[in-house]
Amino acid sequence: MATPHINAAPGDFADTVLMPGDPLRAKYIADTYLENVRQVNDVRNMFGYTGTYKGREMSVMGHGMGIPSVSIYAKELITDYGVKSLIRVGSCGAVRDDVNVRDVVIGMGASTDSKVNRMRFNDHDFAAIADFELTQHAVAAAKAKNVPVKVGNIFSADLFYNPQTEMAEMLKRYGIVGVEMEAAGLYGVAAEFGARAMTICTVSDHILKGDSLSSADRQTTFDDMMLIALDTVLRDDAART
Q1: What is the distance between the alpha carbons of residues 182 and 3, in angstroms, rounded to a whole number?
Q2: How do beta strands 56-61 and 16-19 pair?
Q3: Fewer CB within 10 Å: C terminus or N terminus of the chain?
Q4: Residue 205 annotated in active site
Q5: pLDDT tens digits, one per residue of 99-140
């Protein structure tokens, strides 16, 4: 049954959905990596697709920018379409000296300045963490492809243009491996509604060093990350059968 934000029919989504922020990225993933693709959502141009990768049915759908946006789509995919696993595939900034542009970052946990998880957890602290098995398979997939990977705590910011300029140094001091805007919300929704979630990002810029990737380099690193994410799903299937 359609929701206010998704007009797919029952059964249109696979049990695993890859979620980039940009709906045009979702289209790119579907066109580039999936076979037998059909579009299943176009509400607000937040495109969703379902197809197969190496014979495995999977879906891809954009989630927009920020925790409120990803929380809407993740909740409805889980509760209305029966999705079991959500993998955010995106980009992040770096603050640590040992994390560089082009690296792949896997969010084992996600800190945040948002209050959404306190709202759902009776105003207590909630440890927003990724599914262990998905994380384990993603690390193995990255290592098999010789792609540098950092695993740890990421920070999901409510503000892209943060007036608290001292935040970057504090995040570095606490060992944050990447700064983005959605993972903590995604992990909270998955926990609340009984799904599995993980975030995997490419480092597109270094906030403190000022390094950044060109558009062409961003595409190359995104493709590297996508192959890791797709392999993660296949490895997870193999481990669970």
Answers
A1: 21
A2: parallel
A3: C
A4: yes
A5: 999 999 999 999 999 999 999 999 999 999 999 999 999 999
